[in-house]
Every structure is written in structure tokens, then in C-alpha cells.
Amino acid sequence: MVLYRSVVWSRKVNLTFTLTQFWFTFQAGFSGQRFYDDWFQSSYNVIFTALPVIIVGLFDKDVSASLSKKYPELYMEGTRNEFLSGELWLYGLFSLFISCLCMLFVGGIIPPLGIHD
Asked: Per residue in 100-110, pLDDT tens?
């Protein structure tokens, strides 16, 4: 369960970060202009991607070590990939759709930055 939450969290964070840059490329007219500074990208990856996974991995415990040895069937769902179903992919497609709608809405209000009349 810890791995599932970590993977889903990392996907959500990276989708949010990547899609904003992707849609800004269209807004900037493919000029190569950057949406985020280098220090912000590094900080974002460390704070929102690495630290939550490390903290959850360190402090979350489903069961004690003695119970996990006594009942190994507790981990059978993970070995059958029951937690990584199509739900994760549907969430990604939904995020793509919502970011597209947001960018089209903002793009209709704010003129592109790289194009001048």
C-alpha cells in the first residue's frame, strides 16, 4: 500500500508540473522561453517528489514484522499488481483533459507571450 501511494503521489505531482510546462510552450509560441527557473525545478522535485516518498517510507507501517512473517498472504495483492490498475491511467488522461481545458480558457483570455502584432 505504501508503494501504491508513493507511485500515485509521484505521478500526480509530475503530471501537474509537466503539463503546465507543456501548455506554456503553446502559449509562448514555441519560443523556447522557460516557464520555471532551474532552482524552482530542482526544489520542486526534491520537496514534492522525493521527500514525501522518503517520509512515508520511513514512518508508515502496515503491520509489524512478526505479523508479516506469520501471514505472507497479506502481500499477495501487491505481487499480482492489483493496486496499479487502469484507475491510474484514467486519472492521467483526466488530468491531461483538465489541463487542456484550463490552458484553452487562459489562452483565450491572455494573448500569447511570444507573438506580437
From this structure: 888 777 766 66
